[in-house]
Design brief:
The complex is a heterodimer of chains A (867) and B (113).
Chain A: H1 9-18, H2 21-42, H3 44-57, H4 75-92, H5 94-122, E1 134-142, E2 149-151, H6 156-165, E3 171-176, E4 181-185, E5 188-192, E6 194-197, H7 201-204, E7 209-212, E8 223-227, H8 228-235, E9 244-247, E10 250-258, E11 271-274, H9 275-278, H10 282-287, E12 297-302, H11 309-324, E13 331-338, H12 358-400, H13 404-439, H14 442-447, H15 454-480, H16 484-489, H17 502-532, E14 543-547, H18 553-561, E15 566-572, E16 582-588, E17 594-602, H19 606-609, E18 614-617, E19 628-632, H20 633-638, H21 644-647, E20 651-654, E21 657-665, E22 680-684, E23 691-696, H22 701-715, E24 723-725, H23 726-733, H24 735-769, H25 771-779, H26 784-818, H27 830-857, H28 860-864
Parallel strand pairs in A: 6-11, 8-10, 17-22, 19-21
Antiparallel strand pairs in A: 1-2, 1-12, 1-13, 3-6, 3-12, 4-5, 7-10, 8-11, 9-10, 14-23, 14-24, 15-23, 16-17, 16-20, 18-21, 19-22, 20-21
Chain B: H1 8-20, H2 26-37, H3 43-56, E1 59-67, E2 73-80, H4 82-101, H5 104-107
Antiparallel strand pairs in B: 1-2
The chains are: A alpha+beta (867), B alpha+beta (113).
């Protein structure tokens, strides 16, 4: 029979697929017989054609598969049976059930945190009615051919010009981020945080007023709108429109009371002043004409419906080009950012409020998925290992008439049951770890509350069901493949002895992850310690920084210095080495060179107090005018001077002023381990100080603190004495590192315990399944030690392979993700890498060892007498 | 089950099965209908009719021998049951009665002239 006498294969297969099995044999036979006849009479081409037509005409209800109609009848009864069987299995195998439930519960608790967290993050700024049309204007600062600096701020000038010259924009809102400080009412001082905003603010954003007219509330200078909570705090009532508040010797009239700001707003404030007020001040008037004064004001746009952000971006580009052509000190490119992408945000400078970095959210999701998958692996692994025990049940079910789909449903349902049980425990764990999580870092504590809503509960439940399906899928599929005949005959080989079983791969993946986590934690801890104990090039020991809080610097310094334990005191504008930096472009007078230079303002005592090393020149001379600056070695080098001495006496234009260099200090780390040392200067000033730095020597810190506090109160009774040790501030600076260490640490514990649970289960199973073999070996003379080796050998190989994968991977991850921006990092040596892997291997071997020992020690008579 | 009415096509199928005697299976039935009644029907349509007839209890079927031309698949032979026969007779007598009630003049124009 040659090939042409066979009907087209594809059509045959198609027919087989759609035809009801009961009729297939008869119909296909008839079709084929007819085809053979046709092929002989009319030629095979014609015959094929007829055959195809016949197949197509087979598409009719009487021929097609009848799907499911027959199984629908007694589903409820079957489900009841499934759940009874599931519970019995749970109770029968207590060890395995516990391992499964505990493992799932731990991983689900982590997942619940993530779900609540991500939901809350995604819910930010969703309450603005016109939210989809609101955009923020961001500035890219271009300077010196460097990578542009991305800022969330824009100049007030930009806002003004957009408002005046681009009628295509519906509304422009300007926000000036500084209505912070004290407000006085009836002689009482209250501290308030807020913004100066232009009149459109209340129309564009949905912040409803309880009292007052939103359209006019912020029109006039010296108008202020406060939130209801603030009103209650100051006046103890809410309807306070018309009352007067005093700030910086100016009177403000309250023109409105706002409903409290929702938690999920990226704009957070207690009071809003009219921007018109700010523009009456001298600083305000100056700022309005300066394109490069972009540091603390924000511009938001409301576009009309139908206008795309691309259109508006073109307008922004026009304006940027126009202003940049005027030759400002640096160029700025303005960029649109939609309201929805402000929070969670990316690393822009000068955000109006803490934003949750996008990468944090992403890495949290990824880590959670890893942990959850790991627990699902456990479930799949143990269920597959135990499937032999269930094989007979499946066989009987199949013989009685269960279809594949029904067996599948049964095992999925069982997995869902377990995952819902775990959800219960996970929920309790979630309540336990929520406060810990909220404390983890300031991003989290300032932005989310993890409040539970119905929506979130619903998500928890859906998640549990999804996990059930996910973890039950592989074992359920395996069960459906059983052939009843061979099961009932007792001749089942599930491939448990294969060299590369899927179970081994799953365990291997788990181990790789656990070791990876353990290594990452070790590395992060080392880096954290390194950063804390980093030699900064000056002394921070026993230095107590006191926040001045608007007090007279000299007065307060003298008061605090009078405490006997204070060895020295100085004044500074900010605390170096804690992350905050100020910079401006410094240029040599009568010379073209200019460079970006960081600075802090200090008094003449600062350098001595902090033990800075002067390499040339001398400290600030108090008898002379305040135009002196002391620079670091980098400044000397980058500015193009040949020696430290050459720089002395040079005149530098800096911060709109001319300074004279009087000294050179040795390079020190004014930044963090993330920054390289760049040109830096100490600038002499007598005002603009924010901190008193006290060098303290004391045996009884508590007593000294109370003495200092008393001294403080002699000058200022309105504010609390607020002092922090320098080393503490530095510790806080590396909060990100410490919190990522905590996160990884927690996840490492979770991942390791989950994989150990899995391993425990597998080891127990291996020992159980080979009981007979082990006892026979023992009877024949094997020692306990022999048996231990026999049982642990397979696992040991897996552990070694896992370590081989985990070490290079986690090393790479640490370098590219965790310390990518660190300029001064740790050396990663053999022991840093190996210790994590060794720890995990050690715990694993103990886990296996206990199980193997139990099996090896058992009395052979107990297991052999049953035969 | 939808009543026991015998459709026109179903009647043809029954008669063809009877005429084929013991050799009535899918291919032969289809061929016979083509030859005798000159109707080309698809195998699928025939299947519908056969299964309907079987549902009504007018025919029964049993599996027969396999053949190489059929890809080694077995035939299914159909036989008419007594109920089927009765239904055929009823259909015929019903028709005969109707025929007999019609005046011959109507049936044969020019009769008796």
């Amino acid at each position: 029979m040659n090939n042409s006498s066979q009907p087209p294969k594809f059509w045959t297969r198609l027919f087989q697929w759609l035809c009801n099995d009961t009729f297939y044999e008869e119909l296909q036979g008839d079709l084929e017989e007819r085809y053979v006849m046709n092929a002989q009479e009319k030629g095979s081409r014609k015959a094929k054609c007829i055959y195809k037509k016949e197949v197509i005409k087979m598409i009719r209800p009487s021929v097609l598969k009848k799907t499911r109609t027959r199984t629908r009848l007694n589903n409820i009864a079957m489900f009841r049976n499934y759940s009874i069987v599931a519970f019995r299995t749970l109770l029968k195998n207590k060890l395995f059930s516990t391992i499964n439930i505990v493992g799932l519960a731990i991983s689900m608790a982590v997942a619940l945190i993530t779900i609540a967290f991500v939901t809350e993050i995604n819910n930010y700024d969703t309450f603005h009615e016109k939210g989809d049309r609101i955009y923020r204007v961001n500035n890219d600062r271009l300077y010196d051919n460097r990578d542009p600096g991305h800022y969330a701020t824009s100049s007030i000038l930009a806002g003004q010009r957009l408002r005046d010259e681009f009628p295509g924009i519906e509304k422009v809102v300007s926000v000036y981020n500084s209505l912070n400080g004290d407000i006085i009412s009836d002689g009482q001082t209250h501290s308030v945080r807020g913004y100066f905003v232009s009149a459109e603010f209340l129309e564009v954003f949905t912040f409803p007023l309880l009292y007052g007219n939103p359209e006019t509330a912020l029109d006039e200078p010296h108008s202020i709108v406060i939130t209801e909570t603030t009103a209650m705090r100051i006046f103890n009532r809410k309807d306070v429109v018309g009352e007067i508040l005093e700030r910086n010797h100016e009177s403000f009239q309250i023109t409105g009371v706002l409903k409290d700001i929702p938690n999920n707003s990226h704009l957070k404030f207690q009071a809003l002043g009219s921007l018109a007020t700010y523009q009456t001040s001298e600083r305000g008037r100056r700022s309005i004409s300066d394109w490069t004064n972009m540091w603390s004001s924000y511009v938001y746009l409301l576009l009309p419906e139908g206008t795309t952000s691309e259109t508006a971006q073109v307008w922004l580009d026009q304006l940027s080009v126009d202003e940049n052509n005027k030759g400002p000190r640096f160029n700025i490119e303005m960029k649109m950012e939609s309201l929805a992408s402000i929070f969670p945000g990316d690393g822009k400078y000068n955000q109006i409020n803490t934003v949750m970095p996008k990468e944090n959210v992403r890495s949290m999701i990824i880590l959670t998925l890893i942990v959850v998958f790991s627990a699902c692996f456990n479930y799949a692994n143990l269920s597959m290992a135990r499937s032999l025990k269930r094989a007979k049940e499946v066989g009987v079910r199949k013989v009685v008439g269960a279809r594949k789909g029904q067996i599948f449903t049964q095992f999925i349902a069982e997995a869902i049951l377990i995952s819902i049980l775990s959800l219960g425990i996970a929920y309790l764990l979630f309540r336990l770890i929520r406060p810990e999580f909220l404390e983890l870092n300031f991003y989290i504590s300032r932005t989310v509350a993890l409040d539970l809503t119905t929506n979130i509960y619903l998500q928890f439940f859906t998640f549990a069901v999804a996990i059930g399906i996910l973890s039950g899928m592989v074992p359920a599929f395996l069960m459906t493949q059983f052939k009843p005949v061979s099961i009932l005959k007792g001749a089942v080989n599930l491939g448990g002895n294969r060299k590369f079983g899927i179970r081994k791969i799953l365990i291997g993946i788990q181990f790789t992850l656990s070791m990876g986590f353990a290594i990452l934690v070790t590395l992060a801890y080392k880096q954290y310690n390194f950063a804390l104990n980093f030699d900064l090039g000056y002394t921070t020991e026993n230095i107590l920084n006191v926040a001045l809080q608007d007090n007279d610097p000299k007065l307060m310094k003298n008061a605090l210095e009078s405490v006997p334990e204070v060895l020295g005191a100085s004044l500074s504008s900010m605390i170096p080495s804690t992350g905050s930096l100020n910079s401006d472009i410094a240029s040599r007078l009568n010379h073209g060179d200019s460079i970006n230079t960081y600075s802090i303002m200090v008094d003449e005592n600062y350098l001595d107090n902090m033990s800075h090393k002067l390499l040339a020149g001398e400290n600030f001379n108090t008898d002379l005018v305040n135009d002196q600056m002391i620079v670091n070695e980098q400044f000397v080098e980058k500015m193009g001077y040949s020696s430290n001495d050459e720089v002395l006496g040079e005149r530098i234009f800096y911060y709109n002023d001319t300074f004279r260099i009087v000294g050179v200090v040795k390079d020190f780390h004014y930044g963090t381990v993330y920054n390289e040392i760049e040109p830096f200067s100490f600038v002499q000033r007598t005002n603009n100080f924010n901190n008193v730095n006290l060098r303290v020597a004391s045996n009884d810190m508590v007593a000294t603190m109370s003495k200092l506090s008393e001294a403080w109160e002699r000058i200022d009774t309105d504010h609390e004495f607020n002092a922090t040790f320098f080393s503490e501030s530095i510790e806080r600076t590396y909060n990100t590192l410490s919190s990522s260490m905590k996160t990884y640490g927690m996840l490492a514990i979770v991942a390791i315990s989950i994989s150990m649970l899995g391993l425990l289960g597998m080891a127990a199973y291996a020992a159980e399944a080979r009981t007979k073999e082990l006892t026979i070996r023992k009877v024949l003379g094997a020692t306990v030690y022999n048996l231990l080796i026999l049982l642990s050998k397979n696992f040991f190989v897996i552990i070694v392979i896992a370590a081989g994968v985990a070490i290079p991977l986690s090393m790479q991850l640490f370098k590219t993700k965790v310390v990518q921006d660190v300029e001064y990092g740790i050396e990663v040596g053999f022991w840093e890498l190996a210790s994590g892997a060794l720890l995990v291997s050690f715990i694993a071997l103990i886990t296996i060892g206990t199980q193997a020992r139990k099996a090896a020690k058992a009395n052979p008579a107990n297991s052999l007498r049953n035969d | 089950m939808k009543g026991t009415h015998l459709g026109e096509f179903q009647e043809v199928v029954l008669l063809v099965i009877l005429s084929l005697d013991s050799n009535a299976y899918g291919v032969t039935i289809k061929q016979e209908i083509m030859n005798k009644v000159n109707r080309d029907i698809s195998r699928g349509a025939l299947h519908t009719a056969l299964s309907r007839l079987e549902e009504k209890g007018f025919i029964t079927s049993e599996q027969g021998e396999a053949h190489e031309d059929r890809g080694g698949r077995r035939k299914r032979y159909y036989t008419v049951t007594n109920t089927g026969l009765t239904a055929l007779h009823e259909a015929r007598s019903l028709r005969d009665e109707l025929w007999s009630q019609i005046p011959k003049i109507k049936l044969y124009p020019g009769y008796g002239k």
